[in-house]
């Protein structure tokens, strides 16, 4: 049964660009279809490109769908050629073995999305669905949309919170009482260790916050800088990603952190470990908050790859899409391997 958040309805799409209908291809000569289906059969036979999965080893090099498709499989034989003319395939074509989903189904669904997102997905539907399948295998609450329009309930507390003092020999903690969800710890530790090998210290300043603490914190900023400014830089109780237990404020928690070695490292490489910048520069009208170069949310490695390759690298775009479309994809997904969770 598709999962639905009991505390809110899906918000309207925030992008200002009006939806554009994705054109359906017309009839295609039989010879063209047969020529295209030959590499497709090889690709669908089990040689899907690996987008980093959910392991603890970071992907090296510039990680893009195109590079993955062209990268040799197993370090020896070359991977089968990727399909490059998806527009010429008929609506009845099945682009991925793990989904009971035709190209026609996907085209129809994406007609309601922005043209840029629709075109990006339809350029590489096989890679997109491969990552969607990996994301569907992750715990569902990793992708919960939390913003000013979709708050969490006051009594929501993650069930797998761990005290970070247990990891104080491996983490740099700027204060006491920090905790995070257990599920993200392997990737966090791997990321911190990789940064340290490169001479960069990733210190943690703020992690999980309860509803009550966020209520106090928001009022503190209202009293200090006024309601209007507080609304742009601090979340109301229930609207903070920190309540999820998967958001981290690193370093100084100030604007100059963007130019600090840790800030630059996270901006460049954090996504490889599943950590996504929540409030990027220039997107206050989308996220509702000013630029926060220190605030990263864990959305898993498949999640950050979906965000990076198909949603302009903007977390809000990806999570809004997931909030609207996850039931559609889950209903049509049939995993070929047992879930880790």
TrEMBL record:
GO terms of biological process kind: proteolysis
Residue ranges constituting the D-alanyl-D-alanine carboxypeptidase-like core domain according to the UniProt record: 179-300
Region (Disordered): 1-24, 56-82
Domain of life: Bacteria
UniProt-listed Gene3D superfamilies: 3.30.1380.10
Pfam families reported in the protein's UniProt record: VanY (PF02557)
Coiled coil: none
CDD domains assigned to the protein according to its UniProt record, in alphabetical order: LD-carboxypeptidase
GO molecular function per UniProt: peptidase activity
Protein name: D-alanyl-D-alanine carboxypeptidase-like core domain-containing protein
């Amino acid at each position: 049964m598709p999962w639905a958040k009991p505390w809110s309805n899906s918000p309207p799409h925030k992008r200002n660009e009006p939806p554009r209908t994705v054109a359906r291809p017309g009839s295609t000569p039989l010879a063209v279809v047969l020529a295209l289906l030959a590499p497709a059969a090889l690709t669908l036979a089990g040689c899907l490109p690996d987008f980093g999965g959910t392991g603890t080893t970071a992907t090296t090099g510039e990680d893009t769908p195109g590079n993955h498709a062209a990268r040799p499989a197993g370090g020896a034989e070359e991977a089968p050629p990727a399909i490059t003319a998806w527009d010429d395939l008929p609506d009845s074509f099945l682009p991925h073995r793990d989904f009971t989903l035709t190209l026609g189904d996907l085209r129809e669904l994406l007609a309601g999305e922005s043209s840029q997102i629709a075109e990006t997905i339809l350029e590489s539907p096989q890679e997109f669905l491969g990552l969607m399948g990996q994301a569907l295998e992750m715990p569902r609450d990793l992708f919960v949309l939390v913003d000013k329009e979709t708050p969490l309930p006051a009594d929501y507390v993650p069930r797998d919170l761990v005290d970070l003092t247990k990891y104080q020999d491996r983490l740099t903690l700027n204060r006491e009482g920090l905790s995070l969800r257990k599920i993200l710890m392997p990737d966090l530790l791997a990321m911190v260790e990789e940064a340290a090998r490169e001479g960069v210290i990733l210190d943690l300043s703020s992690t999980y916050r309860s509803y009550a603490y966020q209520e106090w914190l928001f009022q503190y900023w209202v009293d200090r800088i006024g309601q209007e400014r507080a609304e742009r830089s601090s979340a109301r109780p229930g609207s903070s990603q920190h309540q999820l237990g998967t958001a981290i404020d690193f370093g100084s928690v100030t604007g100059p952190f963007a130019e600090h070695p840790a800030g630059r490292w996270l901006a460049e490489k954090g996504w490889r470990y599943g950590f996504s910048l929540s409030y990027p520069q220039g997107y206050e009208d989308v996220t509702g908050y000013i630029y926060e170069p220190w605030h990263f949310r864990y959305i898993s490695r498949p999640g950050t790859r979906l965000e990076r390759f198909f949603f302009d690298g903007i977390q809000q775009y990806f999570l809004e899409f997931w909030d609207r479309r996850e039931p559609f994809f889950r209903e049509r997904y049939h995993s070929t391997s047992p879930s880790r969770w």
